Structures are given as structure tokens and as C-alpha cells.
């Protein structure tokens, strides 16, 4: 059985990925939440990966708190950069120290390439994740980045409570693309943008 670690385990995307993998079978899946695995805590991550060293890591933990840089609480930006960017480095490094051939799947965001005035920390962090993925691939790491567009998650509902959910990507559809990455379908360094508008073109016919 392949061992898979999915960070940010309490989120809708993590749960959808885990459910999709369970349906396919053949995986030993762990999806710890922050209390069990704080991706910004070097010692906690090291200990966790010592006890469960995955063959495949899905760096999914995320955090966003929109605010203007002009009057921001800088600690919130520190938290966003820490979870979204440093956390990705921290867990990947811990896994690769123990399993140099592990496959790394970074969950990015369409915000990595789109401007959002009050999302600067989140956008910058996700742009960093995309570039880190490309650099790791050039360094010989099996790494890809899969970026969801606007997705129907609890996190987004908190930011946009009155948004029409029918205009959003479903977590379970995004999870299908992540599973393709788990299976190694994309070349190392690839960045796959996934949106409601292009999802059908990315899915196998039997997954539509």
C-alpha cells in the first residue's frame, strides 16, 4: 500500500481527496488537522514524519485573511506566509529527508497568478509555491503543483457567504485531478490550473 499524507486534513479539499483515494483503493491515508500536525512547527513535523513517512505528500494546509498592506495586522500576514509557503517547504523537506523518492503534490491556488488587492500575502505565498515546485523538479524532486480556482469550500464560504455556489468548482471534482497527480500523470514541475470552466477538459471521460 502506498502511504499518503495530506496536510490541512480538516478542510473540504483534503477530505475530498482522501475520499477519492479510498474509492480507488490501495492507499494508507493520513490527513491530520492543525492540532495533530502544525505545518509551521519544525519539530512537530519532523516527529510526525518519523512515525509516518509517506510515499506521496499532498501539501494542502492553507490560510487566508484578506487585509490591506496599508493598515494590516502584520502577524496575520506572517501567519499566511508561514502556513501557505513555509509550511509547504517544512513538510516537503521533512518527508524528502526520509524518502528522497517521495512524490510531492503542492496545492496552489489561482491566486498565484491573479491579482487580489487585499490578498497580497496569500497570493505571494501561492506564487512562491508554484515557483518552488518548478525549482524542486529541476533539483530532481518528483513535484507538481495543482491550483484550484474558486472552489466551494468552508473557507471560501466564510469569505463570500452570499456567493452563488453553482458558479464554483466542486471539491470532489478537484480531487479527481489531484488523484491523477498521485498516479504520476503529470511531469515533474508541472503547474495545473483547475477551474469550473476547464474541469471537463481535464477529466477522463469516465470521471466527468
Task: Report what the structure shows.
By secondary structure, the chain is of the alpha/beta class. The protein is globular, with a radius of gyration of 16 Å. The model has no long low-confidence stretch (mean pLDDT 97). Strand 1, helix 1 and strand 2 form a beta-alpha-beta unit. It has a single domain, classed as 3-Layer(aba) Sandwich (Rossmann fold). It has 7 helices and 6 strands. Helix 1 crosses helix 6, helix 2 runs parallel beside helix 3 and helix 3 packs parallel to helix 4.
* Order of neighbouring strands in the sheet with most strands: 2-1-3-4-5-6
Give the CATH architecture.
3-Layer(aba) Sandwich
Tell me the count of domains. 1
CATH top level?
Alpha Beta
Strands, total number: 6
CATH topology value:
Rossmann fold
Strand content: 5-15%
Features:
208 residues, Rossmann fold, alpha/beta, six-stranded parallel β-sheet
Helix and strand topology:
Blueprint: E1 2-6, H1 12-24, E2 27-30, H2 42-51, E3 56-59, H3 74-98, E4 103-107, H4 120-138, E5 142-148, H5 154-159, H6 171-182, E6 191-194, H7 199-202
Parallel strand pairs: 1-2, 1-3, 3-4, 4-5, 5-6
Helix pairs in contact: 1-6, 2-3, 3-4
In short:
This protein is α/β, with parallel strands linked by helices and 208 residues long. Helices cover 43% and strands 14% of the residues.
